[in-house]
Design goal:
By secondary structure, the chain is α/β, with parallel strands linked by helices. It contains twelve helices and twelve strands. Helix 4 links the parallel strand 6 and strand 7.
Length: 346
C-alpha cells in the first residue's frame, strides 16, 4: 500500500501514443485509471479498453473512459498527455478533476508553460509567461505552480489504432517539484513515483527539474524539426556525419539559452548523439504528425526556445533557420519520399 494514498485516483487526459501507453501500464498494474478522450478514440476504449504492445507482448486492460470531466470527478494525479498546442484551450476545462490536493503532471513536449513560474510568488503578482506556448498568460493563471509536478518524458511510442499503442523501448520519466510550497508534498511525490515504478515506468526524482526539462528540450529540438525536413529516424538523425553537425549547432544554441536561465543540460552533445542513435529506427512524434497531416508542435519545441533566447539576447540563428524550413514543409504538406517511409518495425 502506498504510504500516503491508499487507492490513488489517476486520470489520463489525452489518449494519443503517450497517454495510451501510460494508461495501459497503470491499468495493467492494477490501478483504477480514468481516461479523458473523445470521438472514435473514446468509443474504441469503451469497447476494447487500452492496449500496449511492447517487447514483452500485448497488454490489455479496461479503464474508465469519458469525454466529461464531471463524470470522472476529483483525482489525486492528473497526467496531461495532449499535444502542447491543445493545452491552452483544454486546461481550463479540467477543473472538475482538481481537488485540494490534486497534482497535475504535464507530459508535454518542448518548452512547458510553467517553466518561468515560481511557486513562492504571491498570487497578486502576475507570473511571467512564454507567449509561444501560453498566449496571453492564461495557463500560468489557471493553476498555481504549487499544483504542478514537472515531468520530462522519455517514451518512444506510436499509436497503431485508437486505444492501441506500441513501444519497443524502456519507459522513463523524470519528475520534480517546480517550486515550494507544493501541493505535491514529499510523501505524495514519493507515492507518485511508487505508482509509476510499480507500473514498470522507470521514474527518477530530480531536485532541479528545469535542468531535466532543458535537456529534453535539447533532445526535442535537435530531432523533431530535422526529422520533418529529412524524413529520417532517430538513429539516422544522430549517426549521419552531416546531420550531426546541424545537431551540434542546435544543441549549442539551446545550451546557451538554458544557461542564461540558470539551468545546465544533463548531457553532453556526444551523450545525446549516442542516446539518439541507440533509439533505433524510431520516427519522432513530429514526423508522425507530419505524415498524418496534423499540426506540428513547433510553438513548444522551437518557438518557445527562440522567444526565451531573444529575451536574453542569445543568438540562435540555426534554430531560427530550422524553424523556417520546417514551417515550409508543414505549410506545403511536402514529405520526403526518399527517406524512412514510416514502416519501421514496432
Amino acid at each position: 500500500m502506498l504510504a500516503s494514498i491508499a487507492s490513488p485516483r489517476i486520470a489520463i487526459v489525452g489518449a494519443g501514443a503517450i497517454g495510451t501507453t501510460l494508461a495501459a501500464r497503470l491499468a495493467v498494474a492494477g490501478y483504477t485509471v480514468s481516461v479523458l478522450a473523445r470521438g472514435g478514440t473514446l468509443a474504441a476504449i469503451k469497447r476494447k479498453g487500452v492496449c500496449l504492445i511492447d517487447r514483452q507482448g500485448q497488454h490489455t486492460a479496461n479503464v474508465i473512459a469519458s469525454d466529461n470531466c464531471g463524470e470522472l470527478g476529483e483525482q489525486d494525479f492528473v497526467f496531461l498527455c495532449t499535444k502542447a498546442h491543445s493545452v491552452p484551450s483544454l486546461l481550463p476545462q479540467l477543473q472538475p478533476l482538481f481537488g485540494q490536493h490534486t497534482c497535475l503532471v504535464p507530459m508535454v513536449n518542448g518548452t512547458p508553460w510553467w517553466l518561468l513560474m515560481d511557486a513562492v510568488e504571491p498570487r497578486s503578482v502576475e507570473p511571467p509567461h512564454i507567449e509561444a506556448v501560453d498566449p496571453g498568460g492564461k495557463l500560468v493563471n489557471c493553476l498555481p505552480a504549487s499544483a504542478i509536478v514537472g515531468c520530462v518524458v522519455y517514451i518512444a511510442a506510436q499509436l497503431k489504432a485508437p486505444g492501441v499503442a506500441c513501444s519497443n523501448t524502456p519507459l522513463r520519466l523524470v519528475v520534480g517539484k517546480i517550486g515550494t510550497p507544493s501541493k505535491c508534498t514529499d510523501s505524495r511525490l514519493a507515492a507518485l513515483i511508487e505508482v509509476l515504478e510499480s507500473a514498470d515506468i522507470g521514474t527518477r526524482h530530480s531536485q532541479r527539474i528545469r535542468d531535466a526539462v532543458w535537456s529534453k528540450v535539447a533532445a526535442n529540438l535537435t530531432s523533431n524539426p530535422l526529422s520533418v525536413i529529412t524524413g529520417a529516424t532517430l538513429a539516422q538523425l544522430y549517426s549521419h556525419a552531416s546531420l550531426q553537425k546541424v545537431v551540434g549547432q542546435l544543441f549549442d544554441e539551446t545550451r546557451l539559452t538554458a544557461e542564461a536561465y540558470g539551468s545546465q543540460l544533463e548531457m553532453t552533445l556526444q551523450q545525446l548523439l549516442e542516446l539518439g542513435e541507440n533509439m533505433g529506427a524510431v520516427s519522432t512524434s513530429m514526423l508522425q504528425d507530419h505524415r498524418q497531416g496534423r499540426a506540428l508542435e513547433l510553438a513548444a519545441i522551437v518557438e518557445g526556445v527562440i522567444e526565451l533566447a531573444d529575451s536574453k539576447r542569445i543568438p540562435v540563428p540555426t534554430i531560427k533557420l530550422i524553424l523556417h524550413l520546417t514551417r515550409y514543409f508543414e505549410d506545403t504538406g511536402l514529405r520526403p519520399s526518399y527517406a524512412c517511409d514510416g514502416k519501421e518495425k514496432c
